[in-house]
Amino acid sequence: MSTLLAFHAHPDDEALLTSGTMARAAAEGHRVVLVVATDGDLGLTGAEFAGAEGELGRRRLAELQASADALGVARVEYLGYADSGMGPELYPDPPGRQRFVRAPVDEAAERLAAILREEQADVLLTYDANGGYGHRDHVRVHEVGARAAELAGTARVLQATVPRDTICRALDLVAKVYRFPADFDRDSFDRAYSARSQITHRISVIRHITAKRASMRAHASQAAAPGDADRTLAAFLRIPRPLYDVVFGREWFVDPAAAPGSPVRRSIFDEPT
Prior knowledge:
Keywords: Zinc
Organism: Arsenicicoccus piscis
Largest sheet: 7 strands, mixed
CATH class: Alpha Beta
Strand order of the largest sheet: 3-2-1-4-5-7-6
CATH architecture: 3-Layer(aba) Sandwich
Number of helices: 9
Protein name: GlcNAc-PI de-N-acetylase
């Protein structure tokens, strides 16, 4: 059996991008390790989850553990960085911690590499070069993950992503029946995630969809929002189960070491030729 280590920026990122793959690997008998860079303390949330400074971060780490339990994850680690936020302003570092995006790449990579070495990980999951939709912490996960793999000698790094044409087509369909907020930038998705031609692994997780949905539900603070705002996670969880299975029944990855034109693989542990 192999060891899979999934590296994410914030609690709840694992639920959206790799939870099905993680649940499948665990069910197949592989060891699965989940590492987050930050505690997500700058995440938006509803009044019922807001509290004193640091309280949301502690809440989100507890939700992360609940998500991991639902997926069969063997070990959860937090690298100790503070959330960098997604707004235009980068806030000062909180006492005793550094915003993840300010951390030197080699320093953060060594923290991750130490876990990779200890676990003798066979596969590391990170993000594509765009950081998915471009969050500064997601881009830094891509950079830190690549460097950590070099430091630890981890042979295979797969970048979690979504085919951008699939997202754009879905958004255009949704726009026919749903009015997006005024600040929603549809055009930004033309540059987000990865082109379909770059996908090297397409993983069916339909048999593990119950665990994936439980992982999403574990992050209750991120399904809540101030006032009447709608949250992406809450909207996903409102999708009726048959349609949810279709939408979330697959996950995608890019192997940057794969030769151009390699066949798309169906298992996370398959190596493109």
